[in-house]
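Q&A log
Question type: sequence-to-structure
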Amino acid sequence: MRQRKRGSDPGCPVEVTLNLIDGKWKGIILFHLQAGTCRFGELRRRMPRITQRMLTRQLRALEEDGLITRKVYAEVPPRVEYALSDVGEALRPVIDVLNAWGEAYHARRVAASPPQRPEAAAGA
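Response status: OK
Response body:
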């Protein structure tokens, strides 16, 4: 597992977990890999707002931390597949809880937002 800051020990186990799935994209990548093995292009299609460079960086970090595996096939053009490792699979309940919480939060926000008047919705 790579260390974020030299000589720094995590303050608690929650910090360890958050350091591994930090940032905007790692949790989303792990969520998509829960459905099974994906190729790079498939992950890009599932996450259209991520840049190719950022996806590459995040996949490398997740692989370095042991959360995903990367399998390269000796083909032309080369085929690369990503999957959850055993350690990444152990995060499945965490990602599932984050997903459920996000869905519930979004539903509450939608229910709490005031209804728009028809003319406001039409841009009048």
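Response note: The chain has seven helices and three strands.
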